[in-house]
Design goal:
DUF8154; DUF8154 domain-containing protein; mainly alpha; globular; 170 residues; Four Helix Bundle (Hemerythrin (Met), subunit A)
Length: 170
């Protein structure tokens, strides 16, 4: 594969977007209305968790599980903030803002969960992403478990069970 193939592939994806020909939407996201910001964040979190569940079965792609778990936690937080406040997803330009807003709203009582996850994310995420540290199986499974628990807690707190697509995947 050379430069011409790279340029051809780039032109193809550019053309697909320009023509609005992106193909059928992912099933788990197809119920969402494009104008419903909270549902979009919820659907993204559900999709990432679903991918983690698939990765857990028979692969050792722990980096992807860890990265998707961090993303699912952040999308779940964003869902909650958009759903329960007057915030919009566009209000959060930096990762830290999502965690700080969740912590300020005391969603996890006084357990400081959001602050602890943010501190953990700040310290470790880029180290895993850039392969400075390498996550092992136990850590990857633990991160996925954490993401699932955070997601389900927030879905319960927002009474959004009917809109969460996680049960469809299990």
């Amino acid at each position: 594969m050379g430069l011409n193939e790279v340029v051809d592939a780039l032109e193809r994806v550019e053309r697909l977007l320009e023509d609005g020909q992106t193909g059928p939407a992912q099933d788990s996201l197809s119920w969402q209305r494009a104008s419903d910001d909270a549902d979009i964040q919820l659907g993204k979190a559900c999709a990432m968790l679903g991918t983690c569940r698939q990765l857990r079965q028979g692969t050792n792609n722990y980096v992807s599980i860890v990265e998707l778990s961090f993303n699912a936690i952040e999308r779940s937080f964003q869902f909650y903030l958009v759903e329960m406040t007057s915030a919009e997803s566009a209000d959060y330009r930096k990762h830290e803002e999502v965690f700080a807003d969740i912590a300020a709203r005391n969603v996890f009582s006084d357990e400081e969960v959001a602050s602890r996850i943010d501190a953990f994310r700040s310290e470790h995420r880029s180290r895993f992403y850039y392969d400075i540290d390498r996550p092992g199986r136990d850590f990857a499974m633990g991160m996925h478990d954490l993401a699932e628990e955070v997601h389900h807690y927030l879905v319960e707190f927002a009474d959004a069970h009917s809109r969460c697509s996680c049960n469809e995947c299990e």
